[in-house]
Amino acid sequence: MKIAITSTGNTLESKVDRRFGRCSYFVIYDTETQAIEFFPNPNKNQIEGAGPASVQVVASKGAKKVISGEFGTKIKPIFDQLQIQLIALPQENKSIKDIIDLLNHQN
Amino acid sequence: MPRPKRIRKVDNPPHFKGFSPIGTTNKNEPVVLNFEEYESIRLSDFELMGQMESSKVMNISRPTFARIYKSARRKIAQALVKGSPIVFEGGKVYFNSDWYFCKTCGCRFTHPLKDQELKYCALCKSTEIISYEESLNKDENKLTI
User: Measuring CA to CA, how many Å separate A82 from each of A1, A65, B63?
Assistant: First the structure.
């Protein structure tokens, strides 16, 4: 299963971005192959509609879960329709590596 | 970055998508009424609750409720006077039991595949999960949102 994580940079030490639509980078982590892919968010500097546009980006990569700090108001109904699970983290200062370790705890 | 909005709880979302005016030919831009605004009208003017009571139902503060209610009334007035359609859409809301809360890692997550039973936290696979609403009632779980 592919999992998308929002990131502030393109290294494993980068923190999870608190925003979803205008995050700096997306990380696609594949739980089966352990592959990690970083790519910059094309909607970072959009004035309007960054959230829905980012949803399309994440969905086109085939992610089934999305991890971010917080999600905006327009996002949840779209993700529900696409049957993608949202995970919002209340704590700050979690790095991408921490998250991937957490995901690997799964049996 | 400002503090993220607290998620508003909506008990009864409308079962239709909106209203359109009768007998006008000119097509006005629709007025978008958020679900939280719809809920504030429902609680205040349909259930006839006070603001204090309504704000508790929606899990927000009394002044926030007043702001949402004010914005709802203004939008409806706009639509009535100008003859614009009203559509219900968006808003930072959660419907009953939409969000879950994990007591181990403190994350909040959704469960879109309703036909499958929810057993584990989506992030850390802990079985210590409760609904988001329950987490608000307990002080030790209080989130800073």
Answer: 15, 11, 35
- Asked if residue B125 has pLDDT above 80, the reply is no
Distance from CA of A56 to the nearest CA of B (A): 17
Check CB contact of A76 with chain B, cutoff 8 Å: yes
pTM exceeds 0.95, yes or no = no
Query: What distance in Å separates the CA atoms of residue B7 and residue B1, rounded to the nearest whole number?
Result: 17
In DSSP notation, A67-95 reads: EES---TTHHHHHHHHT-EEEE---S--B
The amino acid at residue A3 is I
Length of chain A in residues, anyone?
107
Query: Where in the sequence of chain B do the CATH 1.10.10 domains occur?
Result: 8-21+28-95
Candidates B109, B125, B144; nearest CB to A86: B109
Q: Does the domain at residues B8-21+28-95 carry the CATH identifier 1.20.1070?
A: no
